[in-house]
Amino acid sequence: MVYHSRYIWPFTSKVDVTLTWDEQYGELELYIYQPDNTFIGHYTDLYDSSEKDGTIDVDIKSASGYLPIGDWKLNVYGREVSGSSVSYSII
Hints:
This protein is mostly beta strands. It has no helices and seven strands. It has strands spanning 2-8, 14-21, 26-33, 39-43, 55-61, 70-81, 88-90. The protein has a four-stranded antiparallel β-sheet with strand order 1-6-3-4, with no helix packed on it. Strands 5-2-7 form a three-stranded antiparallel β-sheet, with no helix packed on it. It starts with a strand and ends with a strand.
């Protein structure tokens, strides 16, 4: 698992997290946690579409106004990977 973080600023009510990779080289998964380690969700390639396309696009919204301020954890896990690694981007 590879660990990333994204800082969420005050008064943020929505954040978009997009993980992309070349799906022919494997399957990736995304785990998201709030700054206090509250688990938000586990996402796979089929989360945002009905077919595997090498993209996981997650919109995180607050039901109560604003998202918690701080470093959110974005953990990328290689579920099935051809070779020793898969190149990806997370925005």
